[in-house]
Amino acid sequence: MKLKLDLHPLYNRGGEIDKALRGIIDEAIRKKATEVEIIPGKGSGQLKKKVLRFLEQKEIKALYHRIDKDAKNHGRLFVYFRYK
Asked: For the Smr domain, which residue ranges apply (predicted)?
């Protein structure tokens, strides 16, 4: 199962971005999704940096397996989950 989060509508609302990111991570774990696609968009790259900082937090990092940046579209990130 794959989930998708488009951050375009939230680009200038810091608290809501964190809430949306946490929500999609929690949903992925609840539904045992193997992949979450996060779309911060291309823009200046500030939103993507914010997303990466969020994902690098110790307590968040423990919840997922790895992150990939889309080689063909720098406005997308993929977060992969592994379940035992």
From this structure: 5-82
